Amino acid sequence: MKKKYLFIGIPLLLTIACMISFQLIGSEVAPDGTLVEPFFLLPIGYLFLAISIVSAILIGITSFMKTVKQ
């Protein structure tokens, strides 16, 4: 696997891990009526997804430009 694809793969794997762990941990209502859930995993997961998409677009553009240049 080329090193440039790690910039796509690692954030994508972290996105999947965040979303799965959010579902596995679950949420519950505390005795005082407040909702207890690992909400922090959602924005972090979407941030990693955005990083993965932007990396894929940039790597795709640079690869396309290299093939056109040759």
Automatic annotation (TrEMBL):
Keyword Transmembrane: yes
InterPro entries to which the protein is assigned, alphabetical: DUF3955
The entry's keywords: Membrane, Transmembrane, Transmembrane helix
Transmembrane segments: 5-25, 45-65
Residue ranges constituting the DUF3955 domain according to the UniProt record: 5-59
Coiled-coil residue spans: none
Protein's recorded name: DUF3955 domain-containing protein
